Amino acid sequence: MRKSLQIAGAYVGIIVGAGFASGQEILQFFTSFGLLGIIGGVIATFFFAFLGMQLTQLGSKLQTDSHKAVIYHICGRYLGVVVDIIITFFLFGVTVVMMAGSGSIFEQQFGLPAMVGNVVMAVLTILTVCLNVQKLLSVISWITPYLMVLVLIITGYSLLTMDQSFTALEAVAKKQPAAASNWLLGGLLYVSYNIAAGAAMLAVMGGTTKDAKVAGRGGILGGLGLGLLILLINIGMFAKLDTLQGVDMPTLLLANQLHPVLGALMSIALLGMIYNTAVGMLYAFAARIVKPGNSKFKPAVVGFGILAFASSFIGFIKLVGTVYPVMGYLGFTIMAAIIVSWARSRKEKEEKQEGEIAV
């Protein structure tokens, strides 16, 4: 069970980047649809758990140390080549986005030059990825319980101090900019682009254990953890939606309203989430190019890390606008391939059982 919890914590840590923890993504994909956004959150929870289970189990069965074997297994030889190349590109792209995001937080929250945040995140990410993958899982998973506690406090505070009726808040929600045309598409899109970013590291995490059931359990628990965070952040922000108009980091604002100390702790959590995502993405990218056991792996990590750091000066907003939308389309391809692969394996298993009964 300990290994499953470790995988679950790492799964949450990788998916929950700056936008998730800050509340901005939840605001656009769920809260903007009012109470229907809660149903969207439930649907997203199901898919995060199901897809997490499938990817970690495949990683375990194939004993992979990069996403290549899993992607080729679910997508086939021809589509697999295309998806593999695109995922590898986006792993690097998300690493760049996270380093740029760190610079933005240092500038906005601490009044320091953005370059300081970029440098700090680049150095920490490179050093961490040079550890072995087992230590990497421990590092990535530790911040998940910390974030969960902060989110519980913020949600409780929001519900206890809300001064608008749910009917009035529904009207406010309809005026919010949404990331999709309806609540169902919002939930599916959110899972889609997050799975596109997290699929590679989920496969690697599954490959750290030979027990597919342990790996799959970790994927399910991680998906449920993500769903719980989505629902808590969504409800907490909905209760205070009238005060969040035009705010870049809603959860940070709510934390600061409760107490400046909680605001400082939330800022640390945001940086921790960025760090988790950057570490997971850089490791998965480097592992796809150079085998982790190879003597060239660590020098490659340093080289890729420096390249990502240099690319991060393009700007956080511009990078997000370029990298994330295309990831959503890739994510739908991966989701469809996983579901087809699962259905095919179920059918083969049933036919095998029928054959054994007939004999």
UniProtKB/TrEMBL annotation:
Coiled-coil stretches noted in the UniProt entry, renumbered to this chain: none
UniProt xrefs under InterPro entries: YkvI-like
Signal sequence annotation: none
UniProt keywords, alphabetically: Membrane, Transmembrane, Transmembrane helix
Transmembrane intervals: 33-53, 74-100, 112-133, 140-160, 180-206, 218-241, 261-285, 297-317, 323-343
Protein name as catalogued: Transporter
